[in-house]
Structures are given as C-alpha cells and as structure tokens.
C-alpha cells in the first residue's frame, strides 16, 4: 500500500547546490529514505539558563539510562499531577517530563509490567508506550548537533515556480510579513547560521524537544539532517538579494527540534513538548512536516496508541488555545486518508507488520482536530504524484514539487537544493498563514484556518476516479491552492473588488489568444490605479505582446516584446482605466510574434 515511499519525513528527493555546483546528498540511514530513482554558532543574546519547573522536576527525577528502558505517556486530569508522579516512582518508573497544564506525564521504566500497573492507579486515565524500542542513552546526556561550516553563495534571488504559483512574489510588493509574527519549525532542526535564515532566526525561542522535554542549550535546536533547514527557508528565507526568498521573508523563525539522534525519529512525547513550547512561547503558526513515530496511523482501540492520540491531541489543543495554528503535511504514500484499509509501515522503530485499519485510525498530527492538512501539487494545477489525498481530510494544497520541478530552498552549511514532498507543500501554507497573521494581528487560529480555505483558489479534480468532491472542495486539493496575494490584502476586500481567471490558455507560435474576466457588481468607472496581475508561462517573452482590452474595446498595452529570451511574465501592472466603465468583459490578449517558443496564460486577475 505504501510502495511509493516509506517515511515520516514527508519528502521523496533532495539535490543540494553550493556556489553553483550540484551534488547529490545522502542523509543518515534513519532519515534519508529517498525514492531511489529520484534525483552553525548560536546567538549569544541569551545565556539560556532558565528552566521551566517541569523540566527541573524531570531532571531531578530522571535516573541513569539502562537497557530495556521504554517511554510512556501517563494521562491524568490537567492540573496538579503530583500524585500521579509519586505513583510512577512507586511502581518502577521515573518521571522524565511533566506537562501539568494538559495532564500528561512522560515516564520511563524498564519494567515490562509498568503500563499495566499504572493503569490501575487512581487518577490515571490512560497509559501508553510511545515506542517499541528502547529509549536511547542520548536522552539522558544529549549530544549537541553539529554546527556546519558555512559556504557563501554567489546565487542571486529569482522568482521560482512555486512562489509564483501561489503569488508570493506579488504579495511581497505589498508586505513581506511582520517580525512580530513567530513561526515554529517542528522538525529535524534548523541551521541558524545559514546566510538566508540567520537574519530572521529567533534563537531566544528555539529549543530541542527531542526525547520529550525542553533542552534550552544554545545550538540544541540545530539540524541533524537537512529537512528542517529546507522547510525553514521556504517559510521565511530573508529577502536579502542572495539565494532564495521565503513565502513570508519578514517574519521570525524558531526551531523546535523534535527528531532524535541517532534514529531521526519523531516520537509522541517530542511532539507534545513541541506543541506546549509553541503555545507558551507565542508561536502564531507551526509547521509539522512529519508523522509521529512509530505508528503511521494510531488506532483508538489499541491502549498504547489511544494514549498517544490523547496526549498529542491535548498538546495541540493547548497550543491552539494559546493562539497557535498548526499546519501539517498530509504524507507521501499516494494514499486515500478518507478510506483507510491497511498499514504496512508500522511500527517503524522495530519490525513493521501489515495490519487492517479503519478511518478511526489517524495520522498524527495531520488528522488532529484544528490542524490544517496540506496536500502537495506539482508545477501547475496538478496533484503531485506521491501526495496523500482524501475528501474531507485535505484542507488546502500548495506546491510540493514533483519530478524535475523540485522546491528549491536552503540546506545546512549555506547550501541550497531541491526537495519534493508534502513536507515542502506544508511550509508554503505556513508561510501564507504567517502573512495572514501579519496583515491581521488579531486573528485567532480559527480565523487563520477560515481565511486560508476561503481565499484558496478552487482547483477541479482531474480525470481521476479517486478524486471525489466538487471544484470548490475535493479530495485532491481540499478548498484549493493557497493564495499569498489575497492573504496580504488585510481585511476582507469589498465584494467584487478582486476578479480572477485561473483557466489555462495555450499560446501557440504566431498566434493571438485571449482570456476573459467578467466584472459585475461594480458602480461607475474603473479606477485610475487598476491592478492587472499577469502570470504567463513562456520560454521567450521577447516574442510576446500583452494587452488589456477593456469592455468597450480600448487596448492598454502591458508588455511589448521586451525581455528577449527571459522566461515567464509574472507581474502586476497598474493601468489608468478611469475612462472605462468597470462592469463588463475585460480580456487579456497575448500575441506571439515568432516561431519555436510557446507557452500559456496560466492565470490573470483584476483588482479594482
């Protein structure tokens, strides 16, 4: 069932680029899992010595590592868990971390009967093992991740296909986002010294949550792979003239490393720590491009997995209650999440077995209530071949790359490279959510969710029987592809102020084509500052003449055979159309004046 890809990190391929040279990257065995045929010092601003009460308690109670030690979630009533913690110590366990606000205690024990005994303790609601392998010794004395040597780059910023597809490049002309908006990257860590990340990195709120409790040492947040750094660049790489630009290059990035060493796995206690940290540290948005190990799907009829569901659910609800929206990748197995049948991937920390499952079994965190579930698209309005789907499960879609069209972003050590996956789609949505939060500081997570879906561009099902639903909402794309330009419009624009045509119109050699937009509901004439957004994909724009044709036939030239061999016209023009009646059929007319190069009108819009 999962033959296409097998992983918790939700991407299938990577290519790194440094100083213009291309090289293949092979990650650690526990992290790479790439499809075979697919191609830092910390800020010294804070001494970072302050510990939470829960962390101090956990350290005091933690015993030395011993073979056979397993980790458990002990679920109780939120509030004071002191009685439960005492019971853990009295029944062969030790408290590793305690999250009293949500009633979750992370306990370690080498006793095979620990979980069964604790389930009989008064005040204990659930107990579940979070792994089927031993807790690593690194949990008790974690090694700091490496601080990679940085390579300067000669690469300059350009408009990449994924950013133009969601109109991020047009959004930057309005705003790049607010530095008061903090986005948490819950992942393998982030290279905070990278030239495109350092300007926006927030060390004060970065942490490692590997093993299930906060490690606030400087540098504990760094990348143990390449995945988290790539994700961070897509969200908020600085607009500084070099390398790449993130969707929201003016917001702040915080790293919350939840991947463990050396396995690279993301266990439930790590995710719980990450979500509680996000809520307590004012993250407006978090990105979650992983699933919670070791179970691809957690089923409520299994006592261990039921506790995992409840523990992570409480942590997510806590973060949301503190004002944080969680965005998560849907997964890369080309699997229908609305019609689950089998899981052959789990448990991935010991020996996977094939088991029968139902829709009651959920992918965590992406299927938790309140989490925005993101599917991946390729270049154009197409589903990425690997992306999971599901009518009623997928909320929105975004570029994740597919085949030769990868998502290009930052890699540790000052490098850059391509990756494909829903891991790459999710940070595009997190970036758009950060732009929304920048333009609307009072928005709640519910407001952000609503605006992400209502502003998304409707994307119809292809000729594929697996895609069910309507053009407005279906199993492949949810409510559609997110739109960064609409996100920065501030409050809801007046009805009818924005008109768009997303239908593709092929541009043949030596031919003239038109794409219409019908404007209605306006009064009087068009404004003197009519905005005309143009997205034309063409391999030689020097061939093209592009005109806006008003309803009365008046022609306004936007582009007249300039740019020579440059690819694509992705630009917003301002036209003095005050002499034209607003209502009626406006047309974008494109005339190709030569042979050999062709293209299409991908989309265009009018803003009154």
Automatic annotation (TrEMBL):
Name of the protein in question: S8 family serine peptidase
Keyword vocabulary terms for this entry: Hydrolase, Protease, Serine protease, Signal
Gene3D superfamilies: Galactose-binding domain-like, Peptidase S8/S53 domain
Keyword Signal: yes
Family: Belongs to the peptidase S8 family.
Record-annotated active site: 187 (charge relay system), 227 (charge relay system), 423 (charge relay system)
Signal peptide positions (record): 1-26
Positions with biased composition (Polar residues): 147-156
